[in-house]
Amino acid sequence: MKTVIVIAMLQQSGTARALAACAVLAVPLGLAACSGDAERAAPQGACPVPPVDVVVSVDQWGDLVSQLGGDCAHVTTVLASSAVDPHDYEPTPADAAEFQGAQLVVINGGHYDEWAAKLAASTAPDAPVVEALGTEAHGTEEHGTEEHGDHDHGDHDHGTNPHAWYDPAAVRAVADAVRDRLRTLAPDAAGYFDERRSALTTALEPYDDLIESIRAGAAQKTYAATETVFDDMAAALGLTNRTPPGYQVASANESEPSPADLDAFIRLLGDRGVDVLIYNVQTEGSVPQQIRAAAEQAGVPVVEVTETVPPGTDSFVTWQVDQLTALAEALGVRT
Ligand SMILES: [Zn+2]
């Protein structure tokens, strides 16, 4: 099965528009940096220092980093609302140019966005890298030691799941690591970055509250999923994963499940063997559709999730809260 990011370039934020223009400019200029020196020369808005240039690999992390940086960071998200599967994305020369001049790089890590780790190492070798799967900030001295060998997607050191933005603990760890790196890069703005980190904690309250409510109200509840994307969150919620193991392995490896595995999944749903089906709407193919149809026929609630930030959603919190609200409703949890 292949993840398809269905809709591209709609509802762009101002930042995304600026970046799109920047990418267009960067092509004829070769490796010209998008964030010019002119921009870095003067403090902007509420920031007491020139903004730090930050490059984020994928949009799942982009909004969080933008919120942490505020007026003291110029954040470029390389893979924002693209019609590509982040799992096997091939970077373009324009993507490489985005890393030019980066002072801080934020990536998901593992094989998910290995291209970004490589571009950072070659194009911005002095920039520290915050890696979500590492949950720690990685200094420049560690460049070159981050090779994870020949693991498949889904077989990272950190565990079996690369979708770290669905792990609430990883979200907090990344926020802390980004804050720490920004403080180091712009010590005169340390107080500002502390304020932004506190503001993010406040912004995340609806997300944290929903997680707490579902945890409290959905003990013993079960789910199955067409893809592994949401599994870290489901674990944090205390839900039990009843996805047939054969199907789960095939899904994690982005291969087609065997007819027997698919059959096991269909029967599980027909028997109402789970409380909810988690369905990644960014997956194409007949297999997920058959599974969804089986759930609907059996009356098992279907909760839609996405791999990347859906078009028209302006923040990480909105995105996650919408999904968690739908899940709470499907599980009969009062929020
Ligand atoms: Zn995925």
UniProtKB/TrEMBL annotation:
Residues 1-20 form the signal peptide. Residues 140-163 are annotated as: Disordered. GO terms for biological process: metal ion transport. Transmembrane segments: none annotated. GO terms for cellular component: cell envelope. The keyword Metal-binding applies. It holds the Pfam family ZnuA. Residues 140-160 have a biased composition (Basic and acidic residues). One of its GO terms (molecular function) is metal ion binding. Its main location: other. Keywords: Metal-binding, Signal, Transport. It is found in: Cell envelope. InterPro entries: Bact_metal-bind_prot9, ZnuA-like. This is Zinc/manganese transport system substrate-binding protein. It comes from Mycolicibacterium rutilum.
